[in-house]
Amino acid sequence: MQLxxxxxxxxxxIAMHLLGCAAAxxxxxIATDVEADRAELLRLNEExxxxxxxxRDPSFISKVAAKEFRVLAPGGLIENKAQVIAGLSAWDAxxxxxxxxxxxxxxxxxxxxxxxxxxxxxxxxxxxxxLKYMSTWIREGSEWRLLSRSLTPCLKVLIEMGRC
Length: 164
Known about the structure:
Blueprint: H1 2-23, H2 27-54, H3 58-64, E1 65-72, E2 78-80, H4 81-87, E3 91-106, E4 109-122, E5 126-127, E6 131-140, E7 143-153, H5 156-160
Parallel strand pairs: 1-7
Antiparallel strand pairs: 1-2, 3-4, 4-5, 4-6, 6-7
Helix pairs in contact: 2-3
């Protein structure tokens, strides 16, 4: 009887171990997913900047931005998705360059931030730049959706110090 119970306990422990191994993702798989997400967010970030500022095409932002999307524009103006799309026509730029881009993850949320240099201007303000930007992306299923974006001009003193 005791051998029978010991055998059952042993089988249960082995089964629990095997189930735990099958349920727990391998570390290299997690790292690959993070790197794939990082690459995807960098691609989305580049396409977002080009489509908004250079080509002024609303289709990309319409597709990737969440319904609740908000932008904190330089100067403190907060715009919703419709206002951002309407404002695309104000750009007259031939190039936008992104640099020092960083991606930070926390569960289904990612923040993409960096520096933006624009060769062109936005009516009626004129030239912007350099700017620092921060975008918040949320994962919905297998897709990343843009929830918010903040843009701020670099102060001259910070540019001179090499900090912006």
